[in-house]
């Protein structure tokens, strides 16, 4: 929306990061089978520009799992409003910690790795 842009019509990077965090959080919650919170966001780059009206898609992959954490790579791809051309507009890495009912970190369930793609090394 126009409120999410700079004076030149480009979408703010912070808005893109928020959308990527939502997508990555959805994957973290599904794989972790419960509540997951962002504890860090790193390695961000904004190689392209997104305009108001472009369609945004966010693609995420689990890079690594720890005892209580998931590291997820996210890419944001914009498709022009009235066409098919696409541009990678942002990429970055999020780390999530799984949270239990008591509000404390909890271990990833043993069967959680069954939800990960078979070609990933998530040891």
UniProtKB/TrEMBL annotation:
Residue intervals of the HotDog ACOT-type domain: 1-102
GO cellular component: cytosol
GO biological process: acyl-CoA metabolic process; fatty acid catabolic process
Keywords, comma-separated and alphabetical: Hydrolase
Coiled-coil stretches: none
GO molecular function: long-chain fatty acyl-CoA hydrolase activity
InterPro entries: Cytosol_ACT, HOTDOG_ACOT, HotDog_dom_sf, Thioestr_dom
The keyword Hydrolase appears for this protein: yes
Gene3D superfamilies in the record: Hotdog Thioesterase
Family: Belongs to the acyl coenzyme A hydrolase family.
Name by which UniProt lists this protein: Cytosolic long-chain acyl-CoA thioester hydrolase family protein
Taxonomic placement: Bacteria, Pseudomonadati, Pseudomonadota, Alphaproteobacteria, Sphingomonadales
């Amino acid at each position: 929306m126009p409120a999410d842009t700079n004076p030149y019509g480009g979408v703010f990077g912070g808005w893109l990061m928020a959308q990527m965090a939502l997508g990555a959080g959805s994957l973290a919650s599904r794989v972790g089978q419960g509540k997951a919170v962002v504890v860090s966001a790193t390695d961000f780059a904004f190689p392209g520009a997104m305009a108001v009206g472009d369609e945004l898609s966010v693609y995420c992959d689990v890079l690594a799992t720890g005892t209580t954490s998931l590291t997820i790579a996210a890419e944001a791809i914009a498709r022009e409003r009235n066409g098919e051309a696409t541009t990678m507009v942002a990429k970055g890495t999020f780390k999530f910690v799984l949270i239990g009912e008591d509000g404390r970190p909890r271990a990833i369930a043993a069967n959680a790795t069954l939800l990960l793609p078979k070609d990933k090394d998530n040891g």
